[in-house]
Structure formats: structure tokens, C-alpha cells
Amino acid sequence: VGRWKPNAQQRLVLAALDLFMERGYERTTVIEIAERAGLTKSTFFRHFSDKREVLFGADTMTALLVEGIAAAPAGAAPLEAVASALDAIGMHAFTPERRAFVARRRAVIAATPDLQEREALKAFGLTASMVDALRQRGVCDLTARVASQLGSLAWQIAYDRWIDASDGTDFAETLRRTLAELSTQYLLLTRDLAG
Amino acid sequence: VGRWKPNAQQRLVLAALDLFMERGYERTTVIEIAERAGLTKSTFFRHFSDKREVLFGADTMTALLVEGIAAAPAGAAPLEAVASALDAIGMHAFTPERRAFVARRRAVIAATPDLQEREALKAFGLTASMVDALRQRGVCDLTARVASQLGSLAWQIAYDRWIDASDGTDFAETLRRTLAELSTQYLLLTRDLAG
């Protein structure tokens, strides 16, 4: 019986987020995070290599993204393959119940240069994984880079919009609308340059 | 009289590049870099905060980029402002005499995860600076982000192409051609999505 208990990894993430918000990232130690979660330091290090990793977790996102692109129908256009893979991640990571958590995580990262670096590198790695996954589908290098860059920018903008929206719009819809808007922007910006 | 002597900063950069290529980044120390350059460790630290910074130098690129975007004619389209600023940097950093140096620098970075991270963060910072500089010109946020992302991708691709070209094509021309090609890619990818 008793109340629902999240697993150790989730407890560590929530404890870290609380502490980072209360006293700042720099002034929080791994021991304090473990204590707040009711766990030991060695349990912490079984789940994360260091304090910086606690908000970034295992690399499920990259795996989901690569799988999603590979699983798109054979005839799918490159950008459609990217969009459906991003939708799949959104359904996993950006559910309505997680909105408050994601918003707090974003606030902590925005306040901490070290975490901003980590977030930027993660975005960079995700984009590189998309490029590889598209190449695996036989998409040429230049097209793969353009589609991945566009998907990555749409993702970043949709992420902010989804957190800030008060009307409970779901992530997939926000992403699709953002992609359409960006596409219009690209058309307007590039029509004079294209050969 | 005697032969030309580059200044201390340049000597440190060249010494570091030699040592990184000879024995790898990890196995090279700051003291060895200073010795190879005929300088002291404290001179090294007057120019660079640590070993990782020696290939990234002062932040002249960001300054040139921001100035270049601000200096574009009032009527210039956002992407034109970005392209002319990138041309200006290219003329500064990617001269024919520097091609061999830039190629060696790229090889060392490609072999060193730590330096790849630093390079990725630098690209990220440059893109953010472009977005800010465009906003200063009154460009709306979404357009500024799209133009900067496109400029940044063109820059990365043109950089590789310029290093690999054996025909001595100059950087500005490579960049312009790459931008036109990317524009065509965007048109092909997005025409079905744009509203």
C-alpha cells in the first residue's frame, strides 16, 4: 500500500532540481542530493557520472531519435522522418504531467552557465545523430544536414513555446506548427539566393 | 635585421599545434608549449586561461561578426547582413596563407573530444551572437534565429570545403556558393510544409 515511490534515478533528479532551485547549482553537493533523495552517495554515482549529469540523464533521447528516423516509412521525405521522430520523443519526454518539471529544469539551466554548456553540447550531439540517421536512409549529406538543423531549431523553439503555453496545447502540435512557421521563414529568406 | 618573429601569442599557438600533432593533446603540457615557443609558463597564462583555449584564441570572431551585422546597409535583408559579416570574418581568418594552419588545427580538433566540445560551444556562441545582432537591427526573433542558423550551417560547410579545395578558391566565394546551395535545399525540403 502506501504512496507511490519513484525509482532511485527519478528521486535523485527531483532532489537535485529542488536543491539547485533553493541554493543554486554551484552550492549544491552530490552528498546533499543523495541525502535529500534518501539515498547514498554511491547510489548517486551508480546513476550519474557527476553533478552536472543529473539533469541530463541517460541518453534515451538520442536513441529514440535515431530509432524514430530509421522507423519512418521508406518513402517519407527527410524532413517528415525528422518530424515524426521528434514527435515520438515529445510524447515520451513532454507529457502534460511533466510540464512543471520541465519548466523548473529549464529555469535551473538558464541560471547556470555550466549547465547551459551541457545543454548546448547535448543539442549539438542530437543534431549530429539526426544527420547520421538520415544518411543511413540514403539521404545525401547536404540534405541531411539541412533537415537536421531545421528539425533542431524547430525543437528548441517548440520546447520554449510548449513550456510557456498556458492553454495545454500538446507538444507534437506545437512542434508541427513551429516547423510550418520556420518553413515559411526559410522560404522568405532564401528565395532570392537559391540557384 | 634577422628573420621575422611572430608575436608571443602566435608563437604559443603554433608551438601548441605542433605538439598536439606530434604527441596528442592529452599528453602535452602548458610548460612544454611555452618551452617550445621559447617563452615562460607565466607568459602562456597571460595569453590563455588554459591549454584548451590555445587553439581558440581571443574572441575576435564574435566581435567581427557582431560588427559586420551591425554595419550592413539599413535596407539589407537579414540573410544578406549575415552573409556579408561572415565574408568579413573569412577575409580575416581564412586567407590563403592560413590554409595550411587551419587544416592542421582542424585535424587536431577532430582527434580530441575535449577540443571538439570547445569548438561546438564556440559555434553555439557565435550563432547566439548573430541572433542578438540581427535583433538589434529590428529583425523579429524567429527570422533572426532562422537566418543565424542558416548562416552558421553555411559557415561550417564552407569551412570544410575551403580547407579541402585544392584549387585555391577563396573563402568568400566558397561561402556564397554554399549559401546558395543550402537555400535550394531548404526550398526543396520545406515547400510542402510552409503555410
What kind of oligomer do you see? homodimer
Structure annotation, total helices of chain A: 9
Order of helices and strands of chain A: HHHHHHHHH
- Sheet bearing the most strands of chain A, described? none
Overall shape of chain A: it is elongated
Largest interface (CB within 8 Å) is between:
A-B, 34 and 34 residues
Give unreliable regions of chain A as ranges.
Answer: none
Arithmetic mean pLDDT of chain A: 89
What is the CA–CA distance across the termini of chain A? Answer: 68 Å
Helix-residue proportion of chain A:
over 70%
Q: Which structural category fits the helices and strands of chain A?
A: mainly alpha
Number of strands of chain A: 0
Q: Give the amount of beta strand of chain A, in percent.
A: under 5%
Gyration radius of chain A, in Å: 19 Å
Structure, described:
The structure is a homodimer of 195-residue chains. In chain A, helix 4 packs across helix 5 and helix 7 packs across helix 8 (141-164). Chain A has helices at residues 8-23, 30-36, 41-47, 60-71, 78-93, 99-110, 113-136, 141-164, 171-190. The first copy, chain A, is 71% helix and 0% strand. Chain A has 9 helices and no strands. With 195 residues, chain A is mainly α. Chain A is elongated. The longest helix of chain A is centred in the middle third of the chain and has 24 residues, at 113-136. At the A-B interface, helix 7, helix 8 and helix 9 of A face helix 7, helix 8 and helix 9 of B.
